[in-house]
UniProtKB/TrEMBL annotation:
It comes from the Bacteria. It comes from Streptomyces bauhiniae. GO terms for cellular component: cytoplasm. Coiled coil: none annotated. Residues 7-188 form the Calcineurin-like phosphoesterase domain. The lineage of its organism: Bacteria, Bacillati, Actinomycetota, Actinomycetes, Kitasatosporales. Belongs to the metallophosphoesterase superfamily. YfcE family. GO terms for molecular function: phosphatase activity. PANTHER family: BLL5683 PROTEIN, METALLOPHOSPHOESTERASE. This is Metallophosphoesterase. InterPro entries: Ap4A_hydrolase, Calcineurin-like_PHP_lpxH, Metallo-depent_PP-like, Pesterase_MJ0912.
């Protein structure tokens, strides 16, 4: 915790989409970042092994966190579950090499870094206490109080992912940053990510989506890959639809 980083890139919810990850890593500010924090749901998608290999090739520049989808892949491969809610999950789990399963199993749930201009920043996948909880840009203050309970008082910024929609907001005096999804964006196409230090900037990298859809369709053996790539790379799921689906899971009925 003693070292302070000037610039930290945040990549969340890559979901095994190699062309989107390649596009973000080609961004000069990502390449030049002191650290790249990957906040979970890295491999559950069409090119899981390739995505992990690319990130591992960056060495110590990358700091890793696990997400619920990564945990599901590990549990499936280790015989702790017989199915995965997302249909592509079983394909992704089977595509991983044994050492990649071990890597995903070893990933921590949270990480705290000191970032110039922001102080102590806590990174997580969904919320600081759970890898599947839902908080949204319009979640009520009481919900934020619940999920932030137990976060050390010195932490002024919390970075989360999981819901695939970017936003920045204040909640109980803390800055909340969700960079959105690199590989499976809801609401608008492009590879979404964040840049921290000294502020908190939401970024989106445009890339050749028709070419990426064609590439995934040609290279991935998942039976429904053409429909999967068309849906998620083209962001067919709108932010309105995603908020409607996620809303009941953030406890808002109790507000």
């Amino acid at each position: 915790m003693s070292e302070e980083y000037g610039r930290v890139a945040v990549l969340s919810d890559i979901h095994g989409v190699l062309p989107a990850l390649e596009a973000v890593l080609a961004e000069p500010e990502v390449a030049a970042a002191d650290r790249i924090v990957v906040t979970g749901d890295i491999a559950a998608g069409p090119q899981p092994a390739e995505v992990l290999d690319l990130l591992r090739g960056l060495g110590d520049q990358v700091l890793w966190l696990g997400g619920n989808a990564d945990r599901e892949l590990v549990e499936y491969r280790r015989g702790e579950r017989t199915e995965i809610p997302d249909p592509i999950g079983v394909f992704a789990a089977r595509a991983l090499r044994a050492e990649q399963v071990d890597l995903l199993a070893s990933l921590p749930a949270t990480l705290t870094l000191r970032v110039r201009g922001l102080g102590e920043v806590l990174f997580c996948h969904a919320t600081p206490r759970d890898d599947e909880e839902v908080v949204l840009v319009d979640s009520r203050p009481g919900r934020w109080a619940e999920v932030l309970d137990g976060v050390p008082p010195g932490v002024g910024t919390v970075v989360c992912g999981h819901t695939h929609m970017p936003y920045v907001r204040l909640a109980h005096g803390r800055l909340i940053v969700n960079p959105g999804s690199v590989g499976m964006p809801y609401g608008r196409p492009g590879a979404h990510w964040g840049l921290l230090g000294p502020g908190a900037d939401l970024r989106v990298t445009a890339y050749d989506i028709p070419e990426a859809v064609a590439r995934l369709t040609a290279d991935c053996a998942y039976p429904d890959i053409a429909a999967w790539a068309d849906c998620y790379l083209r962001a067919r799921v709108t932010d309105t639809e995603a908020l409607a689906a996620f809303g009941p899971r953030d406890g808002r009925s109790g507000s």
